[in-house]
Amino acid sequence: MSVLVISPDYASHLLPLATLATAWQDAGESVVVATGPATAGIVAEFGFERADLALGRGSNPGVIRAEEQPPGEDDALRGFFAATRHGMVPTLRYQAEARRTDLLWEPVDRARAVLDVIDRVRPDQVIVDHLAFSARLALDVAGIPYADVVLGHPTALPVGDEVYGYPPAWPSAFTPPESELVDLHRLCLDIRDSFTAEWNAALRVLDPDATPSADAFAEHGDLLLLNYPASLHDPARTALLPPHAFLGSAVRAEPADDDVRRWLEADDRPVVYVSFGSFLSARGDVLATVLEALRPLGLRVAVATGSATGLPDVPADWLLRTYLPQVALLQRAAVLVTHGGNNSVTEALTAGVPMVVLPFSTDQFAGAAAIEAAGLGAALDPNTVTATDLGVAVRAVLDGTPADVARAIGEDLRRAPGRDVARAALVG
Q1: How confident is the model at residue 103, as a pLDDT?
Q2: Model's pTM, two decimal places?
Q3: What's the domain of life for this entry (predicted)?
Q4: Which of 349, 265, 337 is nearest to 301 (CA)?
Q5: 264: alpha, beta or left, given left = phi > 0 and alpha = psi -120 to 50?
């Protein structure tokens, strides 16, 4: 038996998808990953075969920098970072406008490239990133069943009266004017309609007899796999989902190197782990505020700095690196300070670690709202928070009940690893 995994050329997408595929690998079955060249090293580290497949203009091997992107994509990335400085609604507006061009890149050509890979690999099963729209378009046209993996917060697939790009919830720290929300909702409706028209145009070329979509953002595969804990999802929303399985998390094995292990073993004080992921680490100004907040707390601090520049000096016993083995560090962390990306959230929950979340974009707002509502930590506005506010929040999470809530969720998630849930859902 063989499985084909289709992923955009982004480490944050490929890592959880590849982790799911290790369940097939451990069963002695063949795994082929179709993705672009930037993440070829990750595919090789997992021991999988790679089929070359580019699904978009951009790429991210682990830490993304605008100057390393192709022309056009670099300016788009800079525009996104600039938008995050103006708050929740301006960022969501920028991202909505960007969807006119970035989610269906050369859809007919890319769909045909996907079908070429299918013809060469001839897999028994196919696993696809939900955001690989052109790949899912190809599979729909060819009538090929596939598992559709939502790697972000489940609201990445709109249900009911939800509109893609408009968050159904956000933390109490964000209080945008009602007029801005109305305008954002209207824009998201417009983008939904134009995106659906683009999907249907490509669909007509690939299969003139196909039934057009009413909402391309709401299209999904035969089986939906949600990389998220069921316990954090609103039961009323769960009832609206198509056939699905909640994976809980897709946490890879990531041992610490010798230097990190020695650092962890050198002191038994609580560890605060700080990371804004591969994209939002560009907000070095917010990261600097976090470092200022943590300095007087007397804790051990590990920081994945990513692409951040201009950071202040920190105590000599802190651990700062461009990249850190997040999964390994979370095994020892007492709290995570994060942008709220779904990989970071689910990895922290699996380790039983509470969070202080500073959401910047997309589904991070809904994810942070769920963390706040579940008592798993605090959520603050990264553009208005002060070092004093952050210090108080970190101390409250450390000394309060969030650690107990996170510990209980972590025990549940570790009992049923996402990769095993995924294989059972597909294979039986």
Answers
A1: 86
A2: 0.94
A3: Bacteria
A4: 337
A5: alpha
